[in-house]
Amino acid sequence: LVKISQEVLHIHQTYLVLSSRSGESDRQLATVKQKNSFLPYKFKIDSIYGRYDLEGLDIAAHSFTLTRNGQIAAIVSKRFFSASDTYGVEIYNGEDHAFVLA
Asked: Would the CA dihedral through 51, 71, 38, 58 be positive or negative?
């Protein structure tokens, strides 16, 4: 449903989120850029759905919040005591699930 492409010639990490849905292939849904911060897990997302902020809640990247216009859109948290890296995602307010997961 969604493709992610990294832009390589930028000072900060930059990604493009593109649609893979039938009839709108390669339509740009968002640009994701790392914020100027000493913490590596802060990103701003300019999308067709509005402006989002993605922020890590801990230094080890085990939990994140995704907010849109100051409202929580999703919470991501790592499941401990599992055999692999497993994350739970709680999506709020009727957000586009494929977009939020990307």
From this structure: negative
User: Strand 42-47 to strand 14-19: parallel, antiparallel, or no bridges (unpaired)?
Assistant: unpaired
pLDDT tens figures, 11-54: 778 999 999 988 888 899 999 998 876 666 889 999 999 999 99
Locate 44 and state its tokens: 């701003």
Find, among 95, 40, 88, the residue nearest to 73 by Cα: 95
Residue 62 tokens, joined: 């085990």
With vertex at residue 97, the alpha carbon angle to CA 72 and CA 26, rounded to the nearest 5 degrees, is 120
Which token pair is 12? 């900060």
Query: Structure tokens of 58?
Result: 């801990």
- The strand pairing partners of 7, in sequence order, are 14
